[in-house]
Amino acid sequence: MSVLVVTGTGTEVGKTVTTAAVAAVAVAAGRSVAVLKPAQTGVGPDERGDADEVARLSGAWTVRELARYPDPLAPATAARRAGLPPVGPAEVAEAAAKLAAEHDLVLVEGAGGLLVRFDDEGGTLADAARLLAAPVLVVATAGLGTLNTTELTAREVRRRGLELTGVVIGSWPGTADLASRCNLADLPVVSQAPLLGALPAGAGGYAPAGFRAAAPGWLAAALGGTWDPEAFASSHAP
To answer: Please, which residues bridge with residue 39 across strands?
Structure first.
């Protein structure tokens, strides 16, 4: 698995911190890691973007953005408002393939969800994943409403003939409610994919050294970590 596409069930679900955790585990294992953010929105020219944050937390070797737009909108809309060219799936796939030729792992972090549009032709992260023949990791929320959005995303991944690696909960609350605890059993059922991790709420605020030390305990073995989904579910059983 040289390229892994990281998407979410929506915005603000923990994609960046999950991408950082996957990168941190890979770096600790001695792998060279590149992070590709096809379109960064809602960030000024001198501000840190998502890929920069992944590198800060994880120690990833290489960071690349293909485009940056100031408005916090879907990439196609943000590009249009800024009067700048959009980024298409073919451009994303080409950039990821070049990085994959020089790194052991390339993490492609999308914007928003799987079908957020990159351009006015309707190109999406799913199209880039298809061009790359790359597996997709879905980041989901923990609580009420996540079953619907996760199942819809998983179904679309499969409808397009893509491999769904699994689901990671991007922010597990310090005090989990009933829905969150029940969802530990239900998320693998509705997604028909394994639950591969749960990051604690606020993990993005950790100092880099602490983040890197803790990251393996947040991710399952399939992502290089030590997290045990059965033990975690048992400890939070409703």
So the answer is: 67
